[in-house]
Amino acid sequence: MSQLNPYQMLGGEAGVQALAAAFYRAMDRLPEAQGIRAMHGASLELIQAKLAAYLSGWLGGPLVYVERFGPMCLSRAHQPYEIGDAERDQWLLCMHAALEEIGAPLPLREPLRQAFHRLASALRTVEG
User: Fold this and answer.
1) How far, in Å, CA of 128 to CA of 3, rounded?
2) Where does the UniProt annotation place the signal sequence (predicted)?
3) Has residue 127 been placed in a domain?
4) 2, 61, 66, 119: which could form a disulfide with 7 (CB 3.0–4.6 Å)?
5) Does the residue 118 lie in any domain?
6) For residue range 18-56, what is the model confidence (pLDDT) as tens digits?
7) By C-alpha distance, which of 84, 104, 106 is closest to 20?
8) Cα separation of 70 and 96, whole Å?
9) Whether the Cβ atoms of residue 28 and residue 97 lie closer than 8 Å to each other
């Protein structure tokens, strides 16, 4: 019997789509996240689709991002933005809220929080 990967534990494509949607709802809703919300355009539709596509492969599912948008260097995509600890923490606040909102399985939440912290920390472009 094989264990489920995070993509499967979240409910596959539907779960990843729900996570991305909840993430951007949190970004729109939380006053503490307005710093990173300002880095985005008025519409979050395309970036939400891109996040869901990226997370699909990152969580162990199909490589949807590459199929839909081509190859990607995550750090290069974030290079134009000033991302420090405050922006990282705002991003993580939104992701933690999204995991809660969609009811991500409890055994998955802490490992994902740690993995998201490593990912978000690696994308910082400025000190502090």
Assistant:
1) 39
2) none
3) no
4) 61
5) yes
6) 999 999 999 999 999 999 999 999 999 999 999 999 999
7) 104
8) 28
9) no
The tokens describing 62, both together, are: 């199909």
Cα–Cα distance, 3 to 31 (Å, whole number): 38
> Cα(11)–Cα(71) distance, rounded to whole angstroms?
25
The answer, as to whether pTM is greater than 0.90, is yes
Has residue 128 been placed in a domain? no
The CATH number linked to 53 is 1.10.490.10
Six token digits for residue 117:
């912290």
Domain count, the chain: 1
Cβ pair 20, 48 in contact under 8 A: yes
Place of tokens 């750090």: 75
Q: Which residue has the tokens 């534990």?
A: 9
Q: Taking a C-beta distance cutoff of 8 angstroms, is the pair 63, 57 a contact?
A: yes
